[in-house]
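Quick check before the chapter quiz. The format below is the same one you will see on the exam, so make sure you can read both the input and the output lines.
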Amino acid sequence: MYPCSPSSAVCCLAVVTVLASSVVLGIYADSDSDVNEVVIPDRMFTESELADHDGTDPDKPIYISIKGIVYDVTSGKGYYGKGSEYNALVGRDSTVAIAKMSLQPQDLALKNDISVLNDGLRSALDEIIKGTYQRKYPILGRLIFDNEHTQRVDL
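Here is the expected output.
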């Protein structure tokens, strides 16, 4: 027996449409699916180039790197601009500081050394990246680290 009778074809069509739309939009997609895959442009930034976009020059865009991915956070100037609450995070890779929700110099200095993070902080970081940075800010490219002690991490 079919879930919808011929007399309720409209109901069946509605259910099929909702399910098909959900799959296309990724609502019911597996975590392994590529529906929500992030596209990272080929542009590469050096740490000094990134530092030049730290919010101190009002004529330049504001950039932040998290897990080696550079985001344009200029639209969040109220948060990241010169003198703003989170200005210490921009113009650099702030992976560890964001994971720890810290503005402490020692956490900012760790850049993207996720080896210092426990599983809970790593998971929280991934949620912050997906829920805030990937959702709100354009991805510009990848950061090339000057220090060999940092590591490249993929989203």
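If your answer matched, good. The first strand starts at residue 44 and ends at 46.
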